[in-house]
Design goal:
This protein is α+β, with helices and mostly antiparallel strands. About 25% of the residues lie in helices and about 30% in strands. It has 12 helices and 31 strands. β5 (about 155-160), α7 (about 165-170) and β6 (about 210) form a beta-alpha-beta unit. α5 crosses α6 (about 140-150).
Length: about 600
Amino acid sequence: MENKLVVNIIHRPELSPEYSKNALGKVEDTQDESLEIFKFQQECAHKNNLRTTIQITYASLFSDVIVKLAKEHHEKYGDEIGLSLLGLPCEEFKEKYKTDDFCIWMFSDEDKKKIIDDVFKLFYDKFGFYPKSTGSYFLDAYTINYIKEKYPSVECAIATCFEEGPKAYHTCNNSWYTFMDGGPWNPWIPSKLNSHCPASSKEDDSGIVAIPHLSRDLLACFDGNGSNFGTHPQNVLRGMIYYNDNGSYEYPYLYNLIDQYHHLGKYNNDFSYNMMFVGPGWLNKKGRWEASYELLAKSYEDGMKYYGYLKRSGKLLDLTMSELAQYYRENHPDYRVGESALWKDILYGSTKEQFWYASPYFRFALDFNQGGAMIDLRPYSARCKQEIGIGHKEVYDASYPYLIQANYRAGYFTHYAGAGLVKSCKVTYHGLTVDLCLTKTMAKFERDGLLIKLTTNPVEITLDNETLKIQSVFMVNEETGEFITERILLNEVKDEVTFTEYFTGAFGTTEYQAPLYNLTLGVDDEEINFTYKGKNVTKNNAKCAYVNIPDINTKVMMYGDNDSLSVLEGIAFSPNYRLSLVKKINKGVVRSCLSLQKVN
């Protein structure tokens, strides 16, 4: 397959955008301007020979002008007419449902069904058919399953924002209650049990292909607010990532971001994807983020021109959402195969590099700026039950829980009282110790069938006047779901070097740790209950160290050739646990495996 960048260009006519209404004043002014901006967006795409997916909102279905325009563009340009579950809070909706809520996943299950039936029926009344695509900021498994059962024509849906959780919340004055960390950044087939998780089999397949809400910078987004780092041109302006060249504004970062997504085809069997999803509120005439309307409009035009250039160059496929769903399934016949992204720093131009991976088993990120330390891990194999909205324990927090999240829980660089969440390795020689988190390297990616392999450049550590040359290899066995780590001591040294491969974990969706009393830790047949006392178990030449976390249906296991395996419970001031594998060598390889299983 030739590596062409597949792009979804998605526009939604919003006749009642709340954030614009407050700024513009009269409802009539907002609606008139939104309609004109939608026309402008469509024109920008069509001038560059690009097809779009028009995601009709509930409010827009009451507009004969919008309905007529969508039909015309479908006939003339081949645009797809989809149905968005954004744009609910128009006067008709508020009057009918007696609420100011507008996020479909936050409603009760009964209201979700009523709203979906209402919106889909109105869509059918206006167009004479049901849509092939839908979407929202987030769609939970319950909503997706209901839509697919009741409206089987739907093949594709916008289902989550990549890493929109506490970081986005904090940068919006603690007021943007859309917590949805932990999902994929590329298209995926959602599990019937939890929409964040890629399906593991045909039986687990929800029947749709999901796409993210915006394509974001996987490195900058993890470190900061992703809303500043996306292929939505107005995100780039909000992040102030542009420059003024004598009155002609330029934004090379936007083009580099699109190109980096194109580059991901190298790691994904020549499949690369990008999406741009922009509502009219981002282009209002009063401007936003110190940017004038003229700059907002220019950035949008220039973004479309770049996609148009790629298409003319034979490097881009402009697919509608339902076409993307079919294309994705054709090119992803094996549920076990995950999405890979070896991501470079294009924002600051450093040599910082991270690797992201998502499959039915797990999602994780490795930071080669810290020697390949694992800085994020989500146990997809647990298929944590997803219940969200009014009437459930979780009303707004739809995030998939982490086992490791180095930014929320400190990572390697912590206060005096202990380590934060990270998976790394400590190297000890003559009583002196260095953590590989303190080394910087880069990695090379390889794929051989169902085996993914990342090999780092060797690093040198000097301890007691002895230089140790160490190379790390990280592998994913997609057949078994094992994450395999090799630490290779390349040079032979006189005395033994101790390698301690460790995993410091916890669980949660925000910075705050829930009680850990339900955890059990063990090595082989010896087990302890978590009591915050710093207890540990160590066994020589053991088979497996593990922790059971019933709160999130997860068992974490570490094993491999070892002198000893151990587990350690944290204290109240460091609420975490640690699994460790210790092996002494003069030269050669220390190999360990990490496996995540569903329990309960």
